[in-house]
Amino acid sequence: xxxxxxxxxxxxxxxxxxxxxxxxxxxxxxxxxxxxxxxxxxxxxxxxxxxxxxxxxxxxxxxxxxxxxxxxxxxxxxxxxxxxxxxxxxxxxxxxxxxxxxxxxxxxxxxxx
Length: 113
Hints:
alpha+beta; 6-stranded antiparallel β-sheet; 2 helices
């Protein structure tokens, strides 16, 4: 990614990434939660051309802007954040059925069937 751009409207910051070829990808929307280090997170869904409130890898709906950017870039650029464990814990699971991320990880209980 060449640059990251943010536009502000009210309590929201809309974050886009610009690739080296000039293509701009909407990544996520942050919602100010009263602290510079705590923002609500919504991922951009290209299939809906909009944003949906989402859970960060920490299992929380809010976190730092860096956590949100790491998560969004990991999903859209197929480069998961290096801070995540190799096998996600229950608190790290995302609802990937609506996210453009191809995960090969399966839940251990489902393998036992």
